[in-house]
Amino acid sequence: MGASKPLIDQVLADKAAGRLKARALAWPDKVKTIERLRDATELARQSMRARQTTRKGDAGN
Amino acid sequence: MREALVALNRLVDDGVVPRYAIGGAIGASFYIEAKATEDLDVLAPSAGLLLSLTPIYDALKVLGGVPEDEHIRIGGWKVQILPAYKPLVEEALAESVEVLYDGIPTRVLTAEHLCAINLDTGRPKDHYRVSLFIEAEAVDMPALEALLVRYQLQERTAKVLNWPEGDAHGRQQTLD
Fold it and tell me: Pairing relation of β-strands B104-108 and B97-101?
């Protein structure tokens, strides 16, 4: 086991590095999904604010 | 996101901060499924920052950032700079990993540190996020448990619904 430990450690390190690289490749698409959700939420908020402003205006007439 | 990361890297190049790392929900999205957030949480060393974040925000304004409450908006993101205000967070920043985001170098907290910080913060959504890491098998449980022991956070796992049976030392609970 002693002689093969450095080899096992290297294999594990390579596996971890590979996982990290794969995650980094997938990350931008995940962030773009979050950005789309963020932008859609902001549009919805702006729309609600505009409707509330219109209703307040109508109530004052 | 690219714009925000380029600006943050400029802070490092210009010596405004020695380094930074992405945490929070965006940091978590590196490891698990994307969840909605509006904030980009950025950890930076606390030296000089506990009193005032003004130098950082001033530098980001020069790079095109727009102040918004306690955030600064860059590239559509509300960037919040969080000084590494306690030993767990300092360690998280020191052990953050360098990765490429669409070719741009940046740093992200490890899954274990993200979970430990979530457990330390302790809101329902933090416990939920830890459960997502566990469900996705995206966190090294022995490494996380070692962190929890080191920072005395073992009790916090009780509110994580899918925390594995057994205590932080791996002992199975027995029914007597």
Answer: antiparallel
Q: For each of chain B's 176 residues, which pLDDT tens digit applies?
A: 999 999 999 999 999 999 999 999 999 999 999 888 999 999 998 876 556 788 888 999 999 999 988 899 998 899 999 999 899 999 999 999 999 999 999 999 999 999 999 999 999 999 999 999 999 999 999 999 999 999 999 999 999 999 998 654 444 444 44
Distance separating alpha carbons of residues B36 and A56, to the nearest angstrom = 31
Contact across the interface for B29 and A24, Cβ inside 8 Å: no
Give the nearest partner residue to A34 out of B29, B99, B101, using CB atoms.
Answer: B29
φ, ψ dihedrals at B41, nearest 5°: -85, 125
Tell me whether residues A34 and B26 touch, CB distance under 8 A.
yes
Chain A environment of B34 (Cβ under 8 Å)? 30-31, 33-34, 37
Phi then psi dihedrals of residue A5, to 5 deg: -60, -45
Q: Which residues in chain A are contacts of B25 at CB distance < 8 A? A: 34
Q: Is A44 on the interface with B (CB under 8 A)?
A: no
**Does A38 touch chain B if contact means CB atoms closer than 8 Å?**
yes
